[in-house]
Amino acid sequence: MASSMAAALAASQAAAAPVPAAPVQPAQEVIPASWAKLVDSEAEITLRVVQLDGLAVMKIMKHSRDAYPSAVNGILLGLDLDGVMEVSNCFPLPAGREGEEESVRPSSKYQASMLRALKEVHGDDNVVGFYQSTAMGAFLSQSFLDLQASHQKSLRHGGIALVHDVSRTARGNTSLKAFRLTQAFLGAHKARKFNVQGLIERGLTFNNILEELPLQIHNTPLLDAFLLTLAQPTVPHTPASLYPTSSLSDLPPTNQPLTPTYPILNTASTPALTHNLSLVLDTLDDYNQESSNYAYHQRQIAREKTRAEAYTAKRKEENAQRVREGLPPLPEEDVSRLFKIPPEPSRLESMLLLGQLDGYSKTLEDVTGASMVKIYAAKAGATAA
Amino acid sequence: MSLGRPSQAVFLQPPTATSAPFANRPSPVTSVTVHPIALFSILDHYLRRDEKQDRVIGTLLGSRQDGEVEVKSAFAVLHAETAERVAVDMDYHRTMLELHQRINPREVIVGWYSTGGNLNNNSALIQGFYQHETAPHPAIHLSLDTDATDGQLGVKTYLSAPVGVTPKLENCVFTPVPCTLRYTNVEKGGLDLLSNAASSSTHLAHPEREMEELEKAVTDVVGMLDRVLSYVQAVLKGERKGDPAVGRYLLDTLSAEGPALGRKGAEALIGSQLQDTIMVSYLASLVRSQVEVSSRLALVT
User: A43-97+104-218: which CATH architecture?
Assistant: First the structure.
């Protein structure tokens, strides 16, 4: 899986390098000199941009929409070449129930058999990351990060995560974003250190868990040709007598691909806003609960600590007393064994909740910003009329 | 919208017999709608074919409702064909079907696709196989003309009917069925993005910001209004002969605006919506700054 074309190229080049030309097997292609710098078997060329194929875009959209409003994920397939991660295909994964450990295994089995099947028809079978659908912009979650962190180990370039916001795409604003984890988060994840100290050391907030990669859309030439065919107005061949008038065809033909519908011009954003606001409230509740949990843990720790300190102080006093009375002092017992001081709770959960809140309110800001523009435009139109 | 050039064929349906022997027969297929993703998968499969393969085939998945077949997705199937014989990898077909149905249990086999515009004896044999898979419903056959025989990448769909005195698998007649493209509003967003890429000179597109998208939509609509306006004025001046069809379309479009609110009503409506929006916007930025402060505070304790 990890072997990619670049790696294969590197291997063939290594074979060719010591003895030029003659002993190279005819089946192996010699890499032209201009390509040699692109050979990147160790994934050293840093990723600059993610390039998404039309097929993958549509598949992600279909899968996310079919399952809406529940979030779905799937596997991205492709190759990286000279800093461009080319995602050419993808396939959905069966929905596992949230928070269920067993759901991991069937989906990896599913992944393996799907990859085998795709390989048979010469499809790409090189996993480069995964995609995740979301609604209203909050996608940060424990499972998202765990999946990405597991990819980070097994995939070239650590894999990418693509987030598709269905609710915004439905309003005419295609929302696709590519991410990968930052070094700061990876360090914390590897050390499993999400307590306050660990966060301070790395300066980790929800803002720097992920870094965004620029994304571009690219079609295969055949798909380009097909789309341009779709954009061509089809002139009916039916005899003119069936249609008494020559219809709209004597207006100059438009250059519109497909039929434009302009969902983006819809000014009624209220239903989406209500839903979004209630999601914000829900997350706030969750956050509140999480922080009171945290406070409870803190108090627990503080209480145990004072008890332990009181015990040692008492023991010291007692020993001083015994020394004065000429008795041998009692042994200093291991305090940590007597009192179980609970470990400091992880702040990851509350950090993620904050991240979700930020995502929701960012979507709110974007939507309201755009709809204010639209309303003002409508107002200008209404008063001018 | 329709795909490819309309055919001149007349498709005759046998009358739906309600008499006893035909009572529980499925309703005949009258039209086929295809989602773009199925066509895109077919094109991708064709691009990845073996060098010596002339055409590729695969299975179409979708749903049926009252004689309308909706093709929602497609997957590739291995096959080999020579002039005399044709082999379809059944095991592969079964495996893929099972994998697909675990994601989308509601999608069933509705037929098969092939690329290239030609129908031959082998097509009839494969059709026979898929008929068997989709029984009692008829299987549809979609052909995507990758050779562009009539100048474009046309899509045609067919049904088959047995022909001849003794029914044989390789004897069947393919009758065309009307086929249209259908997309949901989510898919439309994606299609727009892809066609931006197709028509740009670099063959690349970027998911746009909302404002750019809005600007483009407004300019487009303004352009259309200008065109209609100039046409109407030309007709009024008598420079052009008015077209009743255009007039009818314009009337329908303009009267679909809903009840006239009057200036007062419109302003009140806009005003209240504006207030709501501004309130939500303030709230959102308040939440964001609180969240930001809170996450920073977690770092200083």
Answer: 3-Layer(aba) Sandwich (3.40)
